[in-house]
Every structure is written in structure tokens, then in C-alpha cells.
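Hey team,

Filing this mostly as a record. A colleague (T.K.) asked me to run one chain through the structure pipeline before their review meeting, and I want the input and output archived in the tracker in case anyone asks later how it was produced. No errors, nothing strange. Just documentation.

Input sequence:
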Amino acid sequence: MGGDPGLPVCVFLVPLVRDGDRRPHPPVLWRLLQDALIERFGGATGPETVVWYRDRETISGAWSPGQGEQTVTDLSRRYTVALPSDRVAELRDLLRRVGNSFDQQAMYLEVAGFAEILEVRSEDGFLGD
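Output structure:
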């Protein structure tokens, strides 16, 4: 108890469909994500969800890729990971790999209540690399 602030809680979303062709992800990607979270951080809660869609619980949201572009509506799975502050950068790196593997332009991450949009770049690699 003596003043230890605890671990920052990190929350991230993974949309159910690819950005490029709006098709669902193959089940193997969801397994790779779960395996990566367990291997790197010892586990995670999730997917935590709110809305049922095709027998899956999901989070509904929308975002705009840029000015003048059509708004994208997504259903996503939400994951929660508590980890030491000095490992948050490692989670960001993993989420960029997740973004490439799941064909996403950006990934949403909250760290201790502060939101971040992580740009996904091809040079960040893929899950399983």
C-alpha cells in the first residue's frame, strides 16, 4: 500500500474487419494476438465487449481517415492490459504489428485514461515476425 501507484491500465481496440476490403479477419489472427499478449505481458482481459454482433460481443465506433474522406464505422473488440510503465512502448510496438496483421491504418490505444492513435507503417512488421 505504501504509495505504490499500481500499474497503468492500457486499453486497445481491434476492428472486426480489414480496412482495405472490409472483410472479417481469419480466426488465426485472433489467436496470434492472444498468444502475443500472453507471451509478452503474461495475459490480458478481452476481448471485452458491449454489443452483440454475429454471436460476438463488440464495441461500436467511427473515425475519419482524413478531411474530405468518408467516415468509417467499425465494430471492434476491446482488450485491457495492465503493465509496468516502462513496458508501454513495447505494447505500442506490438499494436503496430497488430495493425499490419489486421490490415488497419491506425490503432486506438488508451494508457491510464489518455487516448493515442498509433499510425501503422509497413516497416513495423507483423504478428509472428
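Quick notes for T.K.: Residues 9-121 form a domain with the Alpha-Beta Plaits fold (CATH 3.30.70). The helical segments are 27-41, 88-101.
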